[in-house]
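Readers outside the structure-tokenisation community will struggle with the description of the input data as it stands. Showing the layout once, in full, would remove most of the difficulty. For illustration, here is how one protein appears when written out as sequence plus structure tokens:
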Amino acid sequence: MSTPIKSSVRDNIGWIELDDADRLNPIGTATYTGIASAVKDFESSAEVGAVVIHGAGRVFSAGADIGEISSFADRAQFQTFVHGFTDALDVLASSHLPVIAAVHGAALGGGLELALACDLRVANADAKLGLPEAKLGVLPGAGGTQRLPRMVPLGVATEMLMLGATISGQRGYDVGLINVLSGSGDVVSCAEQLGHQLVNGSAQVPASLKALLRATLTLSVADGIEGERTVAADLFDSPDGREGFAAFVAKRPPSFRRK
């Protein structure tokens, strides 16, 4: 049975919890379907300005649900699973909402691929991060071979993917995989603080930035800059842009719109 999820809204943050602590939160079909559905619900809410995903119990997620995968009779069933998983992660990556992964304990295999699809990652220094599929004679199938090399040096990505090597949260931070280390604090509380920074800012900034960052994967630098010019001018001429500059000149906090 796939890990169920719990979703809720608290203080303008949409919360998604992987809720199968006893099995270390494995990600199955119902899990990734539920995550994508929750994100879409948050997108339609005027109340939500950021999303935090975390795991119950000792880890973020130990990976894809091997119990479900081992029941597949043929290649076609596995391919359907992988397609569904990648489509669900694309919902996170393409959402106009900023999505934060709060990683504690471990994020392995599909669990790390889930974190990679998020915009920001917070982790404990001793968290275990890895894509160990090579040790099973296979490779990641939910974006790991594509997203990881775009975040860390190629040598590090090769080490993790070819050897199935696991790195610590500290090393992940050092190479750019982790954005914030929680230090001695609780990783979920740290992610919540980051979420509040986003919620209190202009909602149009994360959405526009995510679109620009996606464009860097396919556009030349010149074409990307042309798009950036257009977005920057549009934002400058928006209510939030005018409010931001007016607040700066008046030396007061800006009052941005929720949506």
Summary: DSSP finds eleven helices and nine strands in the chain. The domain at 5-199 is CATH 3.90.226.10 (2-enoyl-CoA Hydratase; Chain A, domain 1).
